[in-house]
Amino acid sequence: RYRPGDRYNGFVCTRTQFIPDFNMTAYMFSHEKTGLEYLHIDRKDSNNVFSINFRTTPFDSTGLPHILEHSVLCGSQRFPVRDPFFKMLNRSLATFMNAMTGPDYTLYPFSSTNEVDYRNLQSIYLDAVFRPNLKYLDFLQEGWRLEHSELQNKNSDLVFKGVVYNEMKGAFSENSAVFGQKFFNKILPDHTYGYVSGGDPLEIPKLTHDDLVNFHRKYYHPSNARIYSYGNFDLDKTMDYVDQKYLSDFERIDSSYSVIPQQKRWTKPVQSHIQSRFDNMGAPLERQNQIAIGYLTADITDVYESFLMYILTELLVKGPNSYFYKSLIEPNLSGGYNQLTGYDPHIRDTMFVVGLQDLPAEDFGKVQKIFEQTIDEVIEKGFEQNHLESVLHHIELQMKHQSTKFGLGLLFNLTPLWNHNGDLIKSMNVSELVQQLRGNLARDPKYLQKKVEYYFRHNTHRLTMTMSPDEYDRKFNESERLNLVGKTEKLSKDDRERIFKEGVQLSEEQKSVPNTDVLPCLKLEIRNSSEKDDISSKLILNVPRQTVRVDTNGVTYFRGILDAKELTEEQKLLLPLFNAVINQFGTKKMNYRDLDQVISSKTAGISFSTHLTESIDDNGRYEFGVLVGSYALEKNVPDMFEILSDIFNEIDLSDVGRFEMLLENYMSDLSVGIAQSGHMYAMQNANGLVTESGKLKEQLMGIEHIAFMKNLTKNNSPEQILEKLRFVAETLFKKSSLRCALNYDTKSEAKTLSQYEKFIGSIPPRASETTWNISKNLDASCRQTVMNIPVNYCAKSIVTVPYSHPDYAPLKVLAKFLSSKYLLPVVREQNGAYGAGAKITTDG
Fold first, then answer.
1. Which structural domain, as residue segments, surrounds residue 26?
2. Which end of the chain has fewer CB atoms at under 10 Å, N or C?
3. Residues 6+ away with beta carbon under 8 Å from 373
4. Using an 8 Å Cβ cutoff, are 496 and 148 in contact?
5. Angle at Cα 521 formed by Cα 517 and Cα 523, nearest 5°?
6. In terms of pTM, does the model score above 0.85?
7. Active site residues
């Protein structure tokens, strides 16, 4: 449709390529006047995506790109409304709307299935980034400001406020986030990566409004921008709009100032130690230590080498057959891998890291020694072919398994490479990368071992960082206090008067009623019918089965629900632990390593998760059990069901040593992420105070579950806990009611159903009938959970109506209006909290 060299709406086509792996065509364009690069992915997908991004490279930690990201969305020339971005939540059918700041880029993506909505959002996003108002008051609101603790009282204390300021205080309330940021800055010290792009709370108050305006003028230029679109909407219309309305107003500039050079490599490894806060929800104090060993590896623009590093990482750290799992995880030295572990392909010099959490500080040296011994072992012995094939199988399966947000996922994967002028077409041709790897392996059986030697043994750009709890909170609070004193003690009388007036003025501005008539909106067009799937239900061997015949791109999906009605109260509370470990044991036929090998080489994995859902007709009833899921290529469906049958009938829960290690890792992971997901925990906690089903969810997924597990491990040995899990498995797999769902291509129906019935036949038969548990409303009460973090989270829960009730839809709309019309303006804009919202769940 578009040919290289031809001109279209101010753009010239530079490259076209059909990508068979994903059945799509990539078109690359360059804007003739400004040099802006444009990538369009043409694909039969109604969920269309549009995005514009800028390479943003700050040279301080004031959070400049992050605060600018917030500020440009506070009104523009064409849409001079406070926060048009949030106000569009009420008048858009977007399937995704956001903006985000990375370490070296700022991205503004959205998606929609409605073309009118798509064009509306396109106009708002482009006007925001190219013609923002960037008002001083918006900077004070979104960035930082000094404000009186009592707004109308000039004599009250001055305090720091600001949306991003508070957001970043929250972001660094999690030890893992502090560790990750410090590690990143330390291993890449010489350029923009040596700073905190999101903003360090102690540095943010150094930023001025002039800095913000100048940064926008420099970096938000079309010559430093890239536009991405995806889907089936009219590309000519998009290009014409972008060119005529915005790009034609600019002249081309040299944007090489934003290019990020490679990090100058160290001549010898570096060691560093940092401090963290004590986590009162985590492991004992003496074990709240972390270590990470990392290397800079391939240049992101070397697509094949980056792909190769991904393969090596999977082989080295993922699953019980990987080298580092065997040497560092199975000996139970720690609470398992920390969140830094893995391969980061999103920065100019890509990074490989292995890290451990919750270990004694005296074991730091031991871990480093084991790490080096493991690398030597890999170089000497190499990788098993079956292990490599399972990794390549996973890649093949993921190419076939495509979600409804494929276009967004593709954008997020391509943006970092594109940001450094990498070859996007090559990166999307995954099959060619696999074939290149296979060719290299065929020519040299020790190919991967030599790569390990190159990237690890002979790589001197290695950082070993350790972290231990200390007086982090006291030191941070003291630094923040001194920061405030340093700002306030220099203020003149006129300065104080100005700050008071600005606070009042901002408050009045926030409370003013905006004229939203300038914003685009949609007509109410509700289709009388929706697309229907080919769904049928049957009772097969006394087990209810739902089937959906649909184009699945050669993948078959299975889900089953095991009713937990026969479990005791304690056994029910054990289900999260059971679900986390049950697929990590062996069976009577094969050990856990062999089973993991078979699972990863034939399926996408076998998952177990807690299933708790309320009746759509009566929120006084709920169903509770375990959800089992898997999917596989059509050719591997027999293997998938055979694996499921083995787990159901032959699971071997006798290895106490392995369980002790799995339990230790589970306990460590429980407390990770609580601070950053505090709003979710607060909502779950509040929900647990109003209904019995909510209370059970809190006991299974909330703070109460952590308390339960701590008490369980304190009063029971690993062997005793494992014995309890054996009874859970026996009850669920041998006696529980089961119902299943299958999604598959019509052409594979006969084979799929035959293998499914064979699996069902292997389970002892039992009449299946959904059992509803009774959920009573609880007396109103309040609860406070005290944690050692500098952020507070609040939630309130109210019982309303079930999903099928006529009032449910109006309440869902009301929740959206409460969020955008009241909570966001009052809680976020006026009071500086990072976020606020209301929602109604399907249980009412």
1. 1-134+207-260+404-419
2. N
3. 327
4. no
5. 125
6. yes
7. 69
